[in-house]
Every structure is written in structure tokens, then in C-alpha cells.
Amino acid sequence: MVAALERLPLDFSVPPELEAREPAESRGLERDDVRLLVSDRAGGALAHARFRELAGFLRRGDLLVINDSATLPAALEAWAERNGREIALHLSTHVAGTLWTAEPRGDVEATEVLHLPGDGRATLLAPVDARSRRLWYTRLEVAEPVVEYLSAYGHPIRYSYVAREFPISCYQTIFARSPGSAEMPSAGRPFSPRVLDDLGRAGVEIATLTLHAGVASQESHEPPFAEAYAVPHRTALRVNAARRAGRRVIAVGTTVVRALESAARDGEVIASQGWTDLVVTPQRGVAVVDGLLTGLHEPQASHIAMLGAFLDERSLSSAYRAALEGGYLWHEFGDVHLIAPRTLPSAGLGQVSAGCSI
Questions:
Q1: Contact between residue 325 and residue 285 where contact means Cβ atoms under 8 Å apart
Q2: Residue 72: predicted pLDDT
Q3: What is the pLDDT of residue 358?
Q4: Could you read off the pLDDT of 256-305 as tens digits, one per residue?
Q5: Which of 56-60, 226-230, 266-270, 340-344 comes out lowest in average pLDDT?
Q6: Residue 291: closest CA among 301, 306, 279
Q7: Do 133 and 267 belong together in one domain?
Q8: Which contiguous run of DSSP H or E holds residue 93?
Q9: What is the Cα–Cα distance from 307 to 9, expressed in whole angstroms?
Q10: Same domain, yes or no: 66 and 82
Q11: Residue 229: in which H helix or E strand, if any?
């Protein structure tokens, strides 16, 4: 593992024991008991804490912007009409009307019809990107509204590292309001009423926006596919007011960075909605976001490039080295990383402090 560590940030491997295979709750913890790695954006110093201590690393007047998208049980069993073969179909993004993008987990052909539970049908029209054929434009035909249909027949999308199936409540954040994400906006998962109370007492403000995350967390040097977002007028006003007052704007999740930066014009956020395929890189930088709270990402993911817009290569390498050596957990049920835009509280440096229905 030493050689892999030396090649950070874009070339390292996550050992299987550091993959979060279940929610914190099923490990006997509270949501806010996951670990928190804190990086000082200015100097690269690191702190280790628990997420419930988040307020201690923020300042009065800081504005946290959080994604309020709710996760859909977007995985469906499907049967190919031409040969009866069973495959999994993962809905990704609602485009318009009955048109979705979806990921069939198997070999398929254009115009192929898949039969779904409850007399539903999905017709695969064409690949979204002919180079990968990963996502397909899909016509979805079901009898009831899609959210109701998925509640009856769908399951949360689950990848191989997750030990077993967990209910959709395990994939919702405390902020979930607007159904539409295929994958949970997981940076918001550790928030709890206790953490929100602490943030309120500390004078930290919270605003929300919506970005519906699709299935494709790109791990093979693929650019992100377009995702629907909406930045409400009130959130735009609060972000701009914070920036004018010299207060920090901290995005909770890479989805929030994409939405806010997509809505930015000349250093201000404009209330807007639409589609974004924005890729934030070190070269592009960020215009309106000062800090980021996010999970730990795979080395080839486009999210790593986004982190490079907040931390220089040396600091990012150090942070991921510390996460690997310290046994932090990856993926949606794992630990989180706060990239703070100013110097950390000196008392916290280098110290480790000690709901879903399952």
C-alpha cells in the first residue's frame, strides 16, 4: 500500500476493509457518529473528529448549502421481451414526460423492450453517449405516478460493497424533500437533529437547493452526465449576502458545488433551474463556494478533480493518506471530509475525539 499512497491523489486503491458495507446505525452508531476528517484549505493542517462535532469547526455566520433531493428506490427487476432474460434496470434521471435516462445492468439492444413489475414497460431508445452505452434514453410506461410506482416495486440502488439490502429510509438525508435522486446526496446523511441544534446555537446558517443525482458516479474517467438542478431565489440571495459580508459559503456535497457554480454569473449566484454537466477542476476553480463537506472518493472519480479546486495536490494527497492510514470508511455510508477555507481552530488540530429503520 505504501507505493499506492505515494501516488496520491489520482492513483491509490481503497482496501476492502475500508468500504462502508452498512449504515452507521447497523453498526450500533448514530448517524452523526461517523468520522470527520478536516482539512485546512489555507495551510493543509488536518484534524480528526466525529461528525457530531462539526459546529466546532465552523464559524458564526457561515452558510451551509445543502441538497434537499430525496432518493428514489430506483432499482427495478426487468425481463427482456426478446428472450425472457432477467436484468436489473436502474433509473437515473427524469428527462420529461415518460422519458428517463436509465442504466440496464446487462447487454441490451436499441429499441429493446423490458417488462417491469406491475405490468410496467421500459423501452430502451438509444444510448445517451454512444462511447460508453452505459446510460440509455428510456421510455417508462407505468400505470401510476412514478414515485408511487417505485415505492411499490423499486429498491434502493445497491452496489456490490454494500452487505445487504437496506430500506429506502437508510438512503434519505434529514433534508430530503424533493424526490428525484437515483443515488443519495450522501454528504448530508450524517446530519441529525442534534447536529442541527448545535449549528443553530453556533450561529451557522443553512440554505437548500435541489440537484437530482443520477446513477453515474463516474469512476472510469468519464465526465458526469447532465443532472437537473434548481437554485431557489431565497438561497441565491443568502449566498450572495454571505459573500458580500465576507462570510464563508460551504457546500454540503459535490452536487451542491455543481449547482451553485452552474448558477454563478460574475461572482454572484442567480436563482435558476435547468441542467448541468459542469465539471469543476483545479484549472477552472470555484467562483462562489469557499468550502466543501463531502465523502471520500475513488481515485478515478471526477469528484477528485473537484477537490483539487479546493486543496492543492500536496494537501489533497496528505488528506487521503491520513484517511487511508487512519481507517476512514468510503462510499455513501462512510465517513466525511470537511475542507475548511480558513485556518482551523488550534485546539482541534491533530486530535481524535472520542435514522434509518433496519
A1: no
A2: 98
A3: 61
A4: 999 999 999 999 999 999 999 999 999 999 999 999 999 999 887 778 88
A5: 340-344
A6: 306
A7: no
A8: strand 86-96
A9: 10
A10: no
A11: strand 227-231
The grid coordinates of residue 201 equal 446555537
Mean pLDDT of 306-330: 94
Listed residues 153, 184, 211: the one ending a domain: 153
Tell me the CB-side half-sphere exposure of residue 193, using CA atoms within 13 A.
1
In angstroms, the CA 355 to CA 25 distance is 7
Cβ atoms 176, 143 nearer than 8 A: no
Residue type, 101: T
**Residue matched to cell numbers 453517449:** 129
Q: Which SS3 state, helix, strand or coil, does residue 8 take?
A: coil
Give the end of a domain, one of 95, 123, 153.
Answer: 153
Distances (CA, A) of 205 to 92, 161, 248, 251, 289: 31, 35, 10, 12, 15
Residue 357 lies in a domain: no
In this structure, the dihedral spanned by the alpha carbons of residues 200, 201, 202 and 204, taken in order and rounded to 10 degrees, is 10
User: What is the per-residue DSSP string for 211-226?
Assistant: E---S----SSPPPPP
What are the pLDDT digits (tens) for 159-203? 999 989 999 999 999 999 999 999 999 999 999 999 999 999 999
For the entire predicted model, the pTM comes to: 0.90
Q: Find how far residue 179's CA is from the centre of its chain.
A: 15
Read off the C-alpha cell for 345: 481552530
Do residues 53 and 36 lie in contact, with contact meaning Cβ atoms separated by under 8 Å?
yes
Domain count, the chain: 2
Q: What is the pLDDT of residue 12?
A: 82
The β-bridge relationship of strands 75-80 and 86-96 is antiparallel
The reply to whether 115 falls in a domain is yes
Question: Using CA atoms, how far apart are residues 115 and 142, in angstroms rounded to an integer?
Answer: 10
3-state secondary structure of 254: helix
Domain assignment of residue 34, given as a range: 2-71+165-345
Do 270 and 137 share a structural domain?
A: no
Any residues with CB less than 8 A from the CB of 352 and at least 6 apart, and which? 48, 49
Indicate if 144 and 281 belong to the same structural domain.
no
Q: What is the CATH number of the domain that holds 179?
A: 3.40.1780.10
Residue 21: inside a domain, yes or no? yes
